[in-house]
Write a structure and sequence with these properties.
Shape: globular
Number of helices: 17
Helix content: under 10%
Strand content: 35-45%
Number of strands: 86
Distance between the termini: 24 Å
Strand order of the largest sheet: 83-84-85-1-86
């Protein structure tokens, strides 16, 4: 294998940075206006805007993923406005009954976001300016982004790079730095600062537009809002200001010029010298003049503790800065200072001083903070507790600091306040939470009110959802009881202390950090599956999280519905379920619409090749084909409901029937109106149907369109042939109806006369009054030439049209919108287009759209999606948005009026001029290979399947598209191969379920697995453990998962210290060292155990079958299932092996134990499921175990020993003195051993049975801190893969014949690559055969293994071997795409993937890995550019796409 591909399959979820700001709207837009609530009596100095003011956006970054969210708030009176997939959480608080996050845009960057800040203009809420996002990347790259309405996404406004030869002097000769760049911004938006290379401060000066008196008018007059921009940047060398070790910096409030406060340490100290040298930190305040580039020192404060690590600027009107240390909090301003001690370790500077202390003990190292109000800061500690710090002040003088406990929550990585009522807890270790808070006075707010609310915070969640959410997203109080929300009691009577109540409103799932995972069978696995369907029998069980956020994440890449029943049914063409409302009056009808979602289906219609079956969907599915008036003599093309579910329409090849229940009320035969010759009458039959109450759109085989128009008053339909298409030369390739539902139809907002539709809806509605609340209906048509048009129905007036829809441009806009040349979307490369059309005429010509669908799912703020399927199986997906370009519309009208003023008046009357579509990438979607089968409809919409909404795509690669938070989640379904037809079913026995028919002729009635959450890249189920999981392994025979878990336990200090004493030695601890004054002092230590978990058959929480506790101060390091050959009985046994180490401090020699257990010989007695068969203490920690050809290989300290097993004893057979330090991972293939050392890279050994010897074949002579290792097998080639602490992977190979391998001693590099995340585990899995690799079973193509890996960011990917031809093709494409695609944040994909050595010497290795993260941009390019690039690199688009497709099929392991 000389070549490989790197492919991400699940993107990072652990949130590292979060910030809030007005990105997509300005504060004056007030997107969520809420009536002031009278419920809580707020303090007078709290801002007087009652209720919730304008809510800013939330910006989060996880690894290299950047996402911008809107916070949607729902007031208490509105009903059912939130999407059904979301669960209402948190009860009622401050007039708000719910809030949730909705995705605005999502970017995957070629670089990890180090730090992030939002540059805001500051000042009043009436400001029209928007904020900008400032991102910093390694080593010193800064990108400033702003939101652009016209593309509905972020746009780069400036880039600042301080790397490369000309900036080399900034590093001052150093190569490695402890941390990346750190960004902070001035609260008033005048400038920003970025600390790079430890001592260089880059000052970013903001453009001063919008200042002075005319500022607001200026912004308003130019149309739209302007974001803050950066004008220039320069560097301040902090070394010139006598600063040596900068720890943190911040900008403070309340000065005329920006003032920068820097926390730095004059001379370093360390923990052994703290008694002599304790107070070493200094803060210095510099006044920054960006115009003069001067920075005079205006005040400073010295003698701060050495463990100070963070500065927090206090908001106006108080001003000043908080210095946060591990044991104290200090407040400093130019005039005042005060401090608060947090525990016994806080020492005063002079011994005479007495320092104020908090009334409880806490350690604040590694805390995150944000301001809840101008004088209350919230801290999230390293244990997940939330603390409130109140500044007691008079005027601008802070008198004292008060700290109080609040609640316990998730362990955070970042925390930000969102507006004046929400804060967001971002976490890498658990699920991130959006929490609403409201504030009152302790006296006026009775604690009973809070208690009630606490009881009801998640009371209305259905039990299945409650299980799903139970993991860590509840805020618990400090005692660990779930959800008893309490607030702090006032410390003393004279301070009217504010109390806060909290309600969790939403959470973002995180599966990181993935420490280890194992690959096991699902509960509902199908033993008979073959081929690719077999893969959906498996799931990944991952150790993720830490401490109380620890959980097992069960991940499945593909959906496997739970089967209720299945029937054999050959030759099925389509299935439909219909409702039937008995003839209730129209008045009764409207009152029942609330429970419309819960109405049961009445009939199931099954279309076979020559007949139609009808089944009743009551308790049992009974066939009623004979007793109903449905058309049953031939196959049905479509069926659905009309007239508010009072009638059923059934369309067949030559006609349609309207039925009331089982009785026919009308029969239409569809013959062409001008039947001149009998032959033409016979030829034209119905080809495809689209139903949108009360219309039915039919496309006939001769290409004509017919519309059935229903009359709701009489419940009859009449045929109408739209005349629009009569004279057109361009045949229609496909068409569909779109029903814009709801009281305020979304598309009306995009019309040029949108202001009309708000006030006088009646005037616009074409048909009778009863339809007002039903919304509008549009017809979307695509022609063979690729033009897409949207018509109003029934008038068939064109309101929107786009040329070349099938080319898949990133944005679609109305073609009547002749945009001025300054619009970036319309800059066409005309020359290259002409070139393309000459070169590659063939493929582009026969590409056309074969199916269209447009749908807006329920939800108050949802926007429509538009889907198109092309002939080659490509799926285009677009999301609609509104863009009102004021100034450009005027220019258009001027330019057009010259042409024909009459035409203009018709154009601009009511076109959807402001409607635009943005294309959405579909990551995990695998294209279906083009087939010559008769085209059938593949898209089936569903409103509620197991609480989710979206669409199901049938075909040979079926997939679920679920809409969660206005983003599409694509989950493939592999388990049944080709799916012919799909429909939803809701009845007594199948609650919100589904029916689908497979190509083998089985009709399956199923439900979605209810415990998985589908709002993630992969469906996931989290099982909370309340401890840290470390390693998991899988026992296939009994389907058990042994798991190492550690739980923090508080122990008395004396007990902890006595365990650290060397037992043999005569060291006695002097008693005076134990603080005699506090006998109850406790210390938290981790207690380890091995739990054996079994997945529940019914789903649900997993059962603990057995627990193996470790001894005190013994850590379990590794757990593995091993197969050992018993020398006495001459048979193999499968045992559970555990390796441990005693952690007793540096004075005690290291020891460890190896334990062997047998699992479950007697299944009837579950108590002794595990029984210990062997245990032995060895020198050194037992950090890794593996079975090697029936022997047990043990890594014990600095050597590895091979043992044979006699049934009662392990006897050493061979040993080798390697690794030098500590084994991190151990892999075995046949008799080869690959071993990774914590500092000394990898070793490659083999074992010879005769002579019983372990011998070193080769090693890597470089220094490398290994994280994980594994073998990569490609046919007959064996390669060694290793990941390291700098987030790289390297692939080595053993070639003793090569000269540079020093006679085979040295492993040679085959490839190297920077992943951008710490890989903690590789898993070797056999690649799946794709359709094209139909070679002999023993050939190289079949014996090919890929490595699945998990990272600490919560991402999962794979390294897959490639053959040389494919690799060369994709590598050429990759080089081309580096220039052809505009990259987010201006980052260069090539430099991101360079090996990072962090200043160590490293010879660059070969570049033999292609990056699929870059290659996936190819499918998002417009068709013309795809063909052009394919032509330039000497291949074809079809060839490239089939290579990418094969790769994703070959690695669809789950």
């Amino acid at each position: 294998m000389s070549y490989a591909a790197y492919k991400m399959m699940h993107w990072p979820t652990g949130i590292e940075n979060c910030a809030s700001g007005y990105i997509t709207h300005s504060a004056s837009d007030f997107p969520t206006q809420i009536p002031p609530s009278q419920t809580d009596d707020l303090e007078s100095e709290w801002p007087l805007k009652k209720g919730i003011g304008p809510v800013p956006n939330l910006v989060v970054s996880a690894g290299n993923v950047l996402e911008v969210y809107l916070v949607r708030v729902q007031e208490e009176d509105t009903k059912a406005s939130r999407p059904p997939g979301e669960v209402r959480r948190g009860g009622l608080m401050a007039g708000v009954s719910g809030a949730w996050l909705e995705l605005v845009c999502h970017y995957r960057l070629h670089g990890n976001v180090e730090t992030m800040a939002v540059l805001s203009i500051g000042g009043d809420d009436g400001c029209r300016r928007r904020d900008a996002i400032v991102l910093a990347f390694q080593d010193a790259k800064i990108s400033v982004l702003e939101y652009d309405d016209s593309i509905h996404g972020l746009r780069l406004s400036s880039m600042h790079c301080f790397e490369g030869p000309e900036w080399h002097y900034l590093k001052r000769g150093r190569e490695s730095f402890a941390r990346g760049p750190l960004v902070k911004v001035d609260p008033q938006g005048r400038c920003g600062g970025v600390l790079v290379y430890g001592l260089q401060m880059i000052t970013l000066k903001a453009a001063q537009a919008g200042y002075g008196l005319g500022g607001d008018d200026e912004a308003g007059g130019s149309g739209g809002t302007v974001s803050v921009r950066i004008e220039s940047s320069y560097v301040i060398n902090l070394r010139d200001l006598d600063m040596k070790h900068v720890k943190d910096f911040t900008f403070v409030h309340g000065y005329i010029e920006p003032v920068l406060v820097i926390l730095h340490e004059g001379e370093l100290t360390w923990s052994g010298r703290t008694s002599l040298k304790q107070h070493t930190c200094v803060i210095s305040a510099l006044s920054i003049s960006t115009t003069l580039k001067q920075h005079p020192l205006i005040w400073s404060a010295a003698n701060l503790p050495h463990d100070a690590y963070k500065l927090l600027a206090v908001p106006s009107p108080i001003g000043g800065v908080l210095v946060i240390c591990a044991n104290t909090i200090h407040y400093h301003s130019q005039s005042v200072s005060c401090m608060l001690g947090l525990n016994n370790f806080s020492l005063p500077i002079e011994s005479s001083q007495e320092i104020p202390r908090s009334n409880f003990s806490v350690e604040l190292d590694a805390a995150n903070t944000t301001w809840l109000s101008h004088d209350v800061a919230m801290f999230s500690t390293k244990t997940g507790e939330l603390l409130l710090l109140t500044l007691v002040y008079d005027g601008r003088v802070v008198q004292r600091l008060e700290l109080s406990k609040s609640k316990a929550s998730v362990l955070t990585s970042g925390i930000t306040t969102v507006g004046n009522s929400f804060f967001f807890l971002g976490s890498r270790l658990g699920d991130s939470l959006l929490v609403q808070y409201s504030c009152g006075i302790a006296t006026s707010m009775s604690s009973g009110y809070v208690k009630d609310e606490g009881a009801d915070i998640e009371g209305d969640v259905p039990s299945a959802k409650r299980l799903r959410r139970a993991s860590s997203d509840a805020l618990q109080d400090a005692s660990g009881e779930e959800l008893s929300l309490y607030t702090s009691a006032p410390n003393n009577s004279d301070s009217a202390q504010k109390t806060f109540s909290f309600a969790v409103r939403d959470s973002l799932i995180n599966i990181g950090p993935l420490k280890d995972f194992s690959y096991g069978l699902r509960i509902n696995a199908d033993p008979n599956a073959v081929g690719i369907a077999k893969q959906s029998n498996y799931e990944l069980v991952c150790c993720s999280g830490h401490g109380k956020n620890g959980a097992l994440c069960v991940l499945q890449q593909s959906v496997r519905p739970e089967l209720i029943t299945e029937v054999e049914l050959a030759g099925c063409k389509g299935i439909w379920t219909v409702y039937h409302k008995s003839t209730r009056g129209h008045s009764a009808d409207s009152s029942k619409t609330v429970s419309q979602d819960d109405e049961y289906h009445a009939y199931l219609i099954i279309s076979l090749e020559t007949r139609t079956m009808v089944l009743e969907t009551a308790d049992l599915l009974g066939e009623v084909t004979e007793s109903v008036d449905y058309y049953v003599q031939g196959s049905t093309i479509a069926a659905g409901n009309l007239f508010g579910r009072r009638r059923v329409v059934q369309v067949y090849a030559r006609g349609a029937r309207i039925l009331d229940g089982s009785y026919m009320t009308q029969d239409l035969s569809l013959t062409p109106p001008s039947s001149e010759s009998s032959s033409s009458t016979e030829s034209s039959t119905v080809l495809s149907v689209s139903i949108a109450d009360p219309y039915v759109l039919l496309r006939m085989t001769d290409g004509s369109i017919q519309l059935l128009i229903g009359d709701p008053s009489t419940c009859t339909v009449s045929v109408n042939v739209p005349t629009v298409f009569d004279g057109s030369k361009d045949p229609i390739s496909t068409c569909t109806l779109y029903h814009d539902k709801g009281p305020d139809p979304w598309l009306r907002k995009t019309s040029t006369d949108a202001w009309l539709s708000t006030g006088i809806a009646e005037g616009i509605d074409g048909y009778d009054g009863s339809q007002h609340d039903q919304g509008d209906i549009y017809c979307v048509v695509c022609y063979e030439s690729g033009t897409l048009e949207i018509f109003e129905v029934p008038s068939f007036k064109c309101v929107f049209s786009v040329d070349k829809f099938m080319s898949g441009k990133t944005h679609l806009m109305d073609s009547s919108y002749r945009a001025p040349s300054k619009d970036p979307l319309k800059l066409k490369k005309t020359k290259s287009e002409e070139m393309t059309s000459q070169v590659n005429k063939e493929p582009a010509e026969n590409m056309k759209v074969v199916e269209l669908a447009m749908q807006r799912w329920s939800g108050q703020y949802s926007r429509p999606f538009l889907f198109g399927i092309l002939t080659d199986g490509t799926m285009l997906c677009y999301h609609a948005y509104v863009y009102e370009g004021q100034e450009s519309t005027l220019k258009i009208e001027e330019s057009v009026s010259a042409h024909s003023s009459a035409e203009l008046s018709t154009i601009s009357t009511s076109r959807l001029r402001n409607l635009r579509f943005v294309r959405i990438p579909l990551e995990s979607f695998t294209r279906e290979e083009s087939s010559t089968v008769i085209p059938r409809q593949r898209i089936a919409m569903f409103k509620n399947v197991g609480g989710y909404q979206g669409l199901f795509l049938s075909g040979s690669r079926p997939a679920w598209f679920m809409v969660c938070r206005e983003r599409l989640r694509v989950h493939p379904q592999l388990c049944d191969g080709l799916v012919v037809a799909f429909t939803v079913l809701h009845n007594v026995n199948c609650n919100h379920g589904l029916i689908y028919v497979t190509s083998q002729g089985f009709l399956k009635i199923c439900q979605l697995p209810s415990l998985s959450s589908y709002d993630n890249y992969w469906p996931v189920q989290k099982i909370p453990l309340r401890g840290t999981p470390h390693q998991v392994t899988y026992f296939a025979e009994k389907n058990l998962y042994p798991l190492i878990i550690s739980v923090p336990v508080a122990r008395p200090l004396s007990q902890v210290l006595s365990s650290l004493v060397d037992q043999e030695g005569s060291h006695q601890i002097e008693h005076d060292s134990l603080s005699s004054n506090d006998p109850h002092q406790s210390y938290t230590i981790d207690e380890f155990e091995v739990r054996i978990l079994e997945p529940e058959k019914s789903g649900g929480s997993w059962e603990t079958r057995a627990t193996i506790p470790m001894q005190s101060s013994e850590n379990a390091l590794t757990v593995r299932m091993v197969t050992l050959f018993n020398n006495l009985t001459r048979e193999s046994e499968t045992l559970l092996a555990i390796g441990t180490a005693y952690v007793q401090g540096e004075d005690v020699a290291a020891r460890g134990r190896v334990l062997l257990f047998s699992i479950g010989k007697s299944s009837d007695n579950p108590q002794n499921l595990v029984s210990e068969v062997y245990s032995k203490e060895l020198k050194g920690a037992i950090s890794a175990l593996a079975s090697l050809q029936g022997h047990l290989l043990i890594a014990s300290g600095p050597k590895i020993i091979l043992h044979k097993w006699t049934g009662t004893e392990l006897n050493g057979v061979a040993f080798y003195d390697v690794p030098p330090l500590y084994v991190v991972s151990l892999n075995i293939v046949k008799n080869f051993i690959l071993l990774g050392d914590i500092h000394k890279s990898i070793y490659f050994l083999n074992w010879k049975e005769q002579g019983a010897q372990l011998s070193l074949l080769a090693k890597d002579f470089g220094a490398l801190n290994c994280y994980a290792t594994e073998f990569l097998i490609d046919g007959t080639t064996l390669s060694l893969v290793v990941s390291d602490d700098q987030k790289n992977i390297q692939i080595f190979y053993y070639a003793p014949k090569m000269l540079e391998s020093w006679k085979g001693q040295k492993l040679l590099p085959r490839a190297e690559f920077h992943v951008g995340a710490h890989i903690t585990k590789f898993l070797r899995l056999q690649m799946l055969p794709t359709d094209r690799t139909t070679t002999a079973p023993g050939s190289d193509k079949t014996n090919r293994f890929a490595l699945l890996f998990g990272t600490l960011d919560g991402s999962i990917g794979c390294i897959a071997p490639l053959d040389e031809l494919t690799f060369r093709r994709l590598q050429t494409l990759q080089r081309k795409l580096a220039d052809a695609v505009p990259h987010a944040c201006g980052l260069n994909p090539k430099s991101f993937r360079q090996f990072r050595s962090n200043g160590k010497a490293h010879r660059p290795g070969p570049d033999n890995i292609v990056d699929c993260e870059l290659l996936c941009h190819y499918e998002m390019l417009p068709l013309e550019e795809q063909l052009e690039i394919g032509h330039q690199i000497g291949t074809t688009r079809a060839q490239i796409l089939s290579n990418l497709n094969d790769l994703s099929l070959g690695t669809s392991f789950l």
